[in-house]
Amino acid sequence: MGKILVTGASGQIGTFLIKKLNENKKKIICLDIIKPKNINFPFLKIDLKNKNGFKKVHKELDDVEILIHLASTVNSGQNICLNGIDSVNLNIHGTLNLLENLPNLKQISFASSYMVYGKPTMQIINETHATNPENIYGASKLITEKILQVFSEKKKINLKILRFMGIYGIVSPYVKQAIPSFIEKILDKKNPIVFGTGNVKRNHIYIDDAIDAIIISINNKLNNKLNNRYNVGGIDAPSNLELIKIINNEVGTKIKPNFMNSKNKEYSFVTDINNANKKLGFKPKIGIKEGIKKTVNEYGKLRRNDS
Amino acid sequence: MIHNIKNKNILVTGGTGQIGSFLVEELVKKNANVFVIGRNKKILKEINFLVKSKKVTFLECDLNNNAKIKKIKKILNEIDLLIHLSSELSEVKTNLIDNAHFSINLNINGTINLLPHLIKLKGIIYSSSTAVYGNTTEKKTNEDNATNPVSFYGCGKLGAEKYLNIFCNFNKIPLTILRYSSVYGPRNRTNQVIPVFIKKALKNKTITLYKKGKTVRDFIYISDIIDATIKVITNNHEGIFNIGSGDKTTMYQLAKKIIKLTNSKSKISFRESLDEINFVSDSKKAKIKLKFSTKINLDRGLLKEIEWHKNCNLIKK
Predict the structure, then answer these.
(1) Are strands B216-217 and B249-250 parallel, antiparallel or unpaired?
(2) Which of A165, A302, B84, B244 has its CA 20 to 30 A from that of B35?
(3) 3-state secondary structure of B239
(4) Are B235 and B244 in contact (CB under 8 A)?
(5) What is the three-class DSSP state of B60?
(6) CA distance A296 to A291
(7) Which helix (H) or strand (E) holds B188?
(8) pLDDT one-digit tens code per residue, B227-254
(9) B277 close to B135: Cβ distance less than 8 angstroms
(10) Does residue A131 belong to the interface with chain B, where contact is any CB pair within 8 Å?
(11) Which residues of B271-301 are buried (b: 16+ CB within 10 A; e: fewer)?
């Protein structure tokens, strides 16, 4: 297998991914704007937005055959006048800058998101669902998918698009999604905040399973250009109230949530992962109870270290 | 959307192009205050007389240049309706990636740069393209069809649709997206098949067809496009509409027709390779909701475009 380039290597998924790739003895090269901690891989400090930044690293990128493209803005707001341009410049133009500098590329795995779909019109969403993103993040991911599709077709590159559900299990002060915020509040013996009724369901995916999906996708040579989009989600689809119950059980508390009105209408979002299962052989292994247990333990460790 | 055009401040981007110039004339007739954004005040083409007679205000601005946009901020602040035609250009750069940057900049960055200044906006009409659908079959394609563009041009158009959609939802502004089929008629300065075939036929040069001339397209005459667009402005309809004739025409039929209508001695030759996209529009939704129907058939429309090209040649001589 040729050399693998991981963009967004210092990000939350990237950090876990390169650890795993290291265990698997893959030849990799990392790219990010910040150097990842404790790595023994070649690292390129590059801002994808900056076309000229690539000039000095031509040689290092020459023999890259596989791209795992994680680098992205994270803003999921709706006011495009504030953050829209950043998402276009990094996610779309940045991806183009990158592609231009990978002359021997054969394979791409792109980390996309369930947010490309927008408001669900099916109970369980498969890859044929309409794509009408409701936020900046979803729109930039969708258009990046499209340009990768056009590019891969023209250059005969094997493209796989992984549409991830929300990933949990990452212990970081920067993570603000539902699961970590509930865990932090409950560990602090405070009431977790639930927007809306708390009944909306999501098939959150545990970080190890998400990493697994990426590794499977680069090892899989299947090249089906009409069917190369894969939903990647977890086994269970708990509601927010169920999540709070599971966390309470794990911590040994009975803390009730505080309900708040939500600005936007909240809806359940459960993706059908059959396609990834059948075509790629992806099978998530960590159920929500086990995943929460692991995550709570990690937060516990972090706190003990801090104090 | 505004029902009455009279005295409304309407901004037309790409107002010097084929669709733009005809639309601007129509809006002026209906007594709107028309503003046109374009990159070069020296190339006003058909709207020159309207700008000279002060019936239209021309704003020289590049939407990828924020400093220049800020200079016309005061006018932008007063705009009621945006008719965003931006570009009829497709692939202009020779390098694949340069083309992609160009299309994304023009369609997405340009759109996002403009929007923050339109603080009184009450509606947007965006002229998209059926290129957003990608490789469709010979069957008619409707608005619910999957969008898998096969060109960066199509990606740029689709991107603008998606970002506009988020903007309009967030700011509660009605948005109409019109996906035009292949537009033809006078003032067609593109390198699309019809002008290319006509120019060849007028010089008795051989017309080359790919894929045995079997590729099908849906051609719609410029005045029908203008009609549909005016209907959207006055009839208050949001959403996505295909605007096409719904008639299948093969490249072979088209070449034959043009040769006949120009009394040309051109021959037809066939060549392999080169991917061509089949597209036939299903415009039922526009028919029902906008009460839109095409009025000019292909023969009549082609004659008008042929006349225009002949006149252009006369002027050149």
Answers:
(1) antiparallel
(2) B244
(3) strand
(4) no
(5) strand
(6) 9
(7) none
(8) 999 999 888 789 999 999 999 999 999 9
(9) yes
(10) yes
(11) eeeeebbbbbbbbebbeeebebebebebeeb
Closest CB to A150: pick one of B155, B162, B166: B155
How many CB atoms neighbour CB A199 within 10 A? Answer: 12
Angle between helices B193-202 and B298-316 (to 10 degrees): 60
CA distances from A10 to A14, A99, A117, A172 (A): 6, 20, 27, 12
**Residue position matching structure tokens 């292949």:** B182
- One-letter amino acid identity for B247? D
Helices (H), B8-151: 18-29, 48-52, 66-71, 73-76, 96-104, 110-114
CB of B110 within 8 Å of a chain A CB? The answer is no
* B157 and B211 Cβ atoms separated by less than 8 Å: no
Per CB-CB distance under 8 Å, the chain A contacts of B162 are 132-133, 139, 142-143
Residues 6+ apart with CB under 8 A from B37: B11, B12, B13, B14, B15, B59, B61, B63, B72
**B200, B150 contact by CB (below 8 A):** no
Beta strand segments in chain A, E:
3-7, 28-32, 43-45, 64-69, 107-113, 124-125, 158-164, 167-168, 193-195, 205-206, 229-232, 258-260, 270-271
DSSP state of A87: H
Decide: B147 and A123 in contact? Cβ < 8 Å. Answer: no
Closest partner residue to A150 among B101, B151, B169, by Cβ?
B151
pLDDT band at A68 (very low <50, low <70, confident <90, very high): very high
- Name the token pair of B131: 């290129």
| Contact state of B97 with A132 under an 8 Å Cβ cutoff | no
Contacts of B124 (CB under 8 A, 6+ apart): B81, B82, B84, B164, B168, B173, B174, B175, B176
